[in-house]
Amino acid sequence: MRRHPTVLALVSGLFLAACGQGGPTLPPSAVTSAPPASFAPVTVRLVTHDSFALSDATVADLRRRTGITLQVLAAGDAGELVNKAVLTAGRPEGDVLFGVDTTLVSRAVQAGVFAAYRPRALDTIDPALRRLAGSDAVVPVDYGDVCVNADDRWFAGRGLAAPGSLEDLADPRYRDLLVVENPATSSPGLAFLMATVARYGDAWPDYWRRLRANGVLVVNGWTEAYTGEFSAGGQGGRRPLVVSYASSPPAEIVYAADPKPAKPSTSVLTDGCFRQVEFAGVLAGTRHEQAARAVVDWLLSAPVQADVPLSMFVFPVRTGTPLPEVFQRFAARPARPLSLDPATITAHREQWVEEWTRVVLR
What we know:
Blueprint: H1 28-32, E1 42-48, H2 56-66, E2 68-74, H3 78-87, E3 96-101, H4 105-110, H5 127-131, E4 139-151, H6 152-157, E5 178-181, H7 187-200, H8 204-213, E6 217-219, H9 222-229, E7 241-245, H10 248-254, E8 266-282, H11 289-299, H12 302-312, E9 315-316, H13 325-330, H14 342-360
Parallel strand pairs: 1-2, 1-3, 5-6, 5-7
Antiparallel strand pairs: 3-8, 4-7, 4-8, 4-9
Helix pairs in contact: 7-8, 8-14
């Protein structure tokens, strides 16, 4: 599963100060300078997080069609990935970077991590997802929503309706039932903090004070929260509410032992979900710029986009991409996911995490 096996730590103490706001607008030449269809045998290094996965057949097809061998360089979790990219900007360890998400993208763009390239396939992507980049220097590849998940069996067994909104989570009926991840050490934890900022504005600390008074449990990362503390996580957890993903219910089916259940035992609280988009871009300073552009094109191609749901448990960004049946039936699709401008996140992220720590943990 894309993120679930790996704690995506975002160690705010390592973040460099952001410089400026927004991102560059690319010149017309960046749009029209497309790479050739094939190359002499060449290896392109894809720098990504530890949870990157595509099927072997999809990767092999890239080599067969273009002559490009893809070498995947896992750089740790999402925070480590961006830290390394910023520190090596202009002298990259690879040729393409994939996996910088909505909460960190503007920092990487402002640091000069990416070279200008706008693939023609960008026209196949929902403009709303493109806007979440805050820049033309990177392209969306996939997206998902961080949401609260509920253990339906637990609630049914006690005759208690599951919460329906963020406000409900602070209701005394749900005291001591919620487990969340620390935003200083967890990607979904940071996304959930962003959701509360987006929903409550400057009053978000007051919301967290109410959650604290209602017995919210904080752990370091997704694995500890979902598999350890969540009552549907399989290890005897006692909390029936957890911050996870809108794609967790279909993953529950896919990874279940045979015979697989007819439906998940968990559901998604679609109020208060925070949309995360993952982006890719050509790394500034690469020695294989044209081949790197071809890999970015490939990430947006129909075969790759069709592969990402069951390889990384995220949604494809390419319009019209068919979804697997298990996604169609069980993945939640929030009607109004929350989001924040990437430049706003860059400007205030550390401040928000520090304030959250003071309010919730001290």
